[in-house]
Design goal:
- By secondary structure, the protein is mainly alpha-helical.
- It has 2 domains: 38-301, Fido-like domain (Fic-like fold); 326-395, Arc Repressor Mutant, subunit A, CATH 1.10.10.10.
- The chain contains 16 helices and 5 strands.
- It has helices at 45-65, 72-88, 96-102, 116-134, 142-153, 192-206, 208-213, 216-230, 237-251, 263-268, 270-283, 287-325, 330-338, 347-354, 358-370, 389-395, and strands at residues 11-20, 25-34, 344-345, 375-377, 385-387.
- The strands form 2 sheets. The chain has a 3-stranded antiparallel beta sheet with strand order 3-5-4.
- It is globular and about 70 Å long.
- The protein starts with 10 loop residues before the first strand and ends with a helix.
Length: 397
């Protein structure tokens, strides 16, 4: 596959050698060194149309999130949905209910009581929560990305001596049981060239020329391609790259809160996603990739808007039912108001979030069970879980 990059107009290949301990053999392969991103790009009218539609849908999505005084109630679920989708793109699968249940049950300090797949997805959710807090008053930096990468791979197979730092070893993109010569893509070797390329990529994100000449979503698509091509970390690059896309939208004001979950659409088009990224390196043509990425943003922003509106309608319905059945049940009402963000809970979790005594929270949950707003989840008797299935029906749709 790397032979198709030998004539790339936006990069060059270089021969690298090393030792592959998996097969106990030396290797000699070609790695791709992408050129720096351009300050201008020419796009056809068809691509501009999709970019315009994507921006319009982003605006509608952002406006929908502003309809609620506490946007966390819709951003939390979008982040968890993104955690599921972005992890699935890397071959790690977990159900949304598994993730949310893991966040309310006590686990060991290192997370070893969690199934490996759930731990990995939960790591991403935690990293994203941190990132969305940091980006409010900070630019994207290598230090920020390294810290997020360390959180994502913590206590997983990807954790290692260079977690939280630029990689110090060669990596490749392709089947893990295949030789490097059969790799789909080999990114630059570690060292000074990789670091300087990453630093120039970061400078491009905020440089005046590309910001003036290239539409926002097009710039985000191009930045995503470049980060994937550089592959600066030993693991977690795809998840970091897709997270950066959301951070760019927030930093530049296209989103006030992280309500976009673009990975869900990319997961459903995974082969085309990977093919488009590779095609940029092969051909130097930006338009097909930018249009593909803009389509992902448009479709996910559109469905995300509908999802938020459905969740807000459900919240209104649930709180009305509680007020009608228990006019003075303050704790039950607070729980019902938050179910669109916290649809799985335990008595201990309710105590943590709302205070009151365990008995008061237990009574509130029992009241919600009586009117069908909550029902038991799973078979546990200690730290018993309760959930509202309607939230999942909306979010998983």
């Amino acid at each position: 596959m790397m032979t198709s990059l030998a004539g790339s107009p936006i990069g060059q290949v270089t021969t690298i050698t090393g030792y592959d301990p998996r097969f106990r053999e030396s290797y000699e392969v070609k790695a791709f060194l992408p050129d720096d991103l351009p300050d201008k790009v020419t796009l056809p009218s068809s691509t501009w149309l999709v970019l315009s539609e994507a921006m319009a849908e982003l605006g509608r999505l952002d406006a929908a999130a502003s309809l609620i005084l506490n946007p966390t109630l819709v951003t939390r679920m979008a982040t968890r949905r993104e955690a599921i989708g972005t992890s699935a793109l890397e071959g790690t699968f977990a159900a949304l209910a598994e993730l949310l249940a893991s966040e309310v049950l006590p686990v060991s300090e290192d997370g070893t009581s969690l199934p490996p797949n759930v731990r990995e997805v939960r790591n991403y959710a935690r990293a994203a929560d941190l990132a969305y807090t940091w980006i409010v008053d900070r630019h994207i930096t290598l230090g920020m990305l390294a810290a997020l990468q360390a959180e994502i791979v913590k206590d997983t197979d990807g954790d290692g001596p260079d977690a939280g730092a630029l990689r110090e070893r060669q990596v490749f993109i392709g089947a893990k049981d295949r030789r490097l010569a059969d790799a789909r893509f080999v990114p630059p070797p570690p060292g000074d060239h990789l670091r300087s390329s990453c630093e120039r990529w970061l400078a491009w994100l905020t440089a005046p020329a590309p910001k003036a000449n290239i539409q926002l979503i097009a710039r985000i698509a191009m930045a995503h391609y470049q980060l994937e091509s550089l592959h600066p970390f030993s693991d977690g690059n795809g998840r970091i790259g897709r997270l950066v896309s959301i951070l760019q939208m927030m930093r530049e004001g296209a989103l006030r809160s992280p309500v976009l979950s673009v990975s869900s659409w990319l997961k459903d088009h995974a082969d085309a996603y990977r093919d488009h990224l590779l095609a940029v390196s092969q051909s130097g043509e930006w338009a097909p990739w930018i249009e593909f990425f803009a389509t992902a943003v448009r479709e996910e922003a559109r469905s995300g808007h509908d999802r938020i509106m459905n969740l807000l309608d459900l919240r209104t319905e649930l709180t009305h039912r509680v007020r009608s059945a228990f006019p003075r049940a303050r704790i039950a009402l607070e729980i019902a108001e938050d179910l669109i963000a916290y649809p799985i809970l335990t008595v201990a979790d309710a105590h943590y979030r709302y205070g009151r005594s365990n008995q008061a929270n237990r009574n509130a949950i029992a009241a919600l069970v009586d009117i069908g707003i909550l029902e038991p989840y799973g078979a546990a008797t200690y730290d018993r879980l309760y959930w509202n299935q309607q939230v999942f029906q909306i979010v998983d749709h």
